[in-house]
Amino acid sequence: MLKTTVGHRDLMPDLIRAWAIIGIVLVNVEMFSAGLNIGYPSTGEAGDHWAKLLVNGLFTLKSYSLFSMMFGAGLGYQLASAARTETNATGRYYRRMIGLLALGLIHVVFLFLGDILVTYAILGSLLYFCRNGKPKTLIIWGLVLIGIQTALMMIGAGAMAMMEGITDPAARRMMDDQMAEQREAFLAIDAIFADGSFLQIAAARASLIPTLIPTVIMVQGISAFGFFLIGLGFFKLGLLSQPDHKFWKTSLFVLLPIGLILSFYGSNVYVEAPQRESAQGLFGMAIMILGSPFSTFGYIGVIALIARMGTGPVLQFLARGGSATLSAYLLQSVIMCIVTLPIGFGLFGQLGALPAVLIALATGIFTLCFVSLWLTKFKRGPMEILLRRWTYLGYRQPLQRNNA
């Protein structure tokens, strides 16, 4: 059995996080730079079409699933750390979730509507009750939840198709009026993002929280919790510290091709949809959710293959950056706000998909490099230090770092 580590940390989990954090900003950039209702402006450029197709096919619902898996595994590492120091993990874990919730609320109001930290804090609080589950049980239930999320999205697509097929003039007129009202509300928000002050934009984000967070939990939360369970199960089985395990070889050569076929089919359906909230758009999203576990495990198979090649300086640099992804994630939001909002370059609503994705790629690489260089001087990333100090307030902090 090959165990690849750097210092006291397993290499694979940090490489997974490093890959995920770049994919996350590639997915998020549309919400940073484009309108809530229509997404990227329609340019007709082939480059924009391919940028959307590739980002959705390769990263949408895959980067967050990787991140969610590692969040679930993080609970396992925290419990293992508590066991080594013979301390009770419960109080510390819930302080961590409270700290994560506070960071998430600040993030969603002042930086990014699509924040995942609030959802992770809420669902992470529920995950703790599953800490004693058997590994295979956790994995099975995780897959079941992903299946449920897919089914719900399919049902939503079917319901939307029925609504789109309404022919009764009165009912059609009522539905069109409701959709027009929603579009006008979104356009008003978009206008604030394009021309408003920092505080006006923050107030607009805050006004959307009551509807946005429940929507995020319904659209992604069920499958995210499923990946939490899978990540915790994989930790308990020791898979994340065994890059040579046969499961990762199967994932690379069998699951990854299946996942990519499903993901690119779903991506094409989604990209060609007339609008996001349409039967076609929801169906495309459902197919991408269905393909997400195949692609997610397949990506880890690729990372396991890379990890088996050794721990050279490039891998160590990337893995080090992957150990401070909270800082990288929040720094991405700061940079994207500077690029898109009036407080910076004011490019909101002006970027096609291709330039937006290229800016996001540069941002992802920069933030990963920044936190990696930061960690050559400091033990943890800046936001990890803040969250850890809150978490361990009143507790003795263990000296050894782990993958949590």
Using brief descriptors, characterize the structure shown.
404 residues, 75% helix, 1% strand, mainly alpha, globular, two-stranded antiparallel ribbon
Report on the structure:
By secondary structure, this protein is mainly alpha-helical. Helix content is 75%, strand content 1%. The chain contains 14 helices and 2 strands. It has helices at 11-33, 46-58, 63-85, 89-110, 117-127, 135-164, 169-195, 198-237, 246-271, 279-308, 313-322, 325-340, 353-374, 382-391, and strands at residues 5-6, 9-10. It has a two-stranded antiparallel sheet. The longest helix is centred in the middle third of the chain and has 40 residues, at 198-237. The chain is globular, with a radius of gyration of 21 Å. The two termini are 23 Å apart. The model has no long low-confidence stretch (mean pLDDT 89).
